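(Fold this chain)
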Amino acid sequence: MNYELLGNQIRKQRKSKKYTLEQLAEQLDVSTTFIGQIERAKGVPSLETLVKIANVLEVSIDALFGVEKKIFDRSPEEI
């Protein structure tokens, strides 16, 4: 798993929503330090926290891992 990519995507999505670290942490009921660690790939979120992050940022978990196009969006020829 590429935690650096995950952290970068979380930061990108957080900033696009104009959330500070503090605001995101408060909504997730975690510390700002932990969010900062996740964004810098120094901390690893649990699956539960990852789902919460995606929900708060209103993105799919796929988007947090940098997946642009879902398999469901592809034609049979592309699969």
About this structure: The chain has a mean pLDDT of 90.
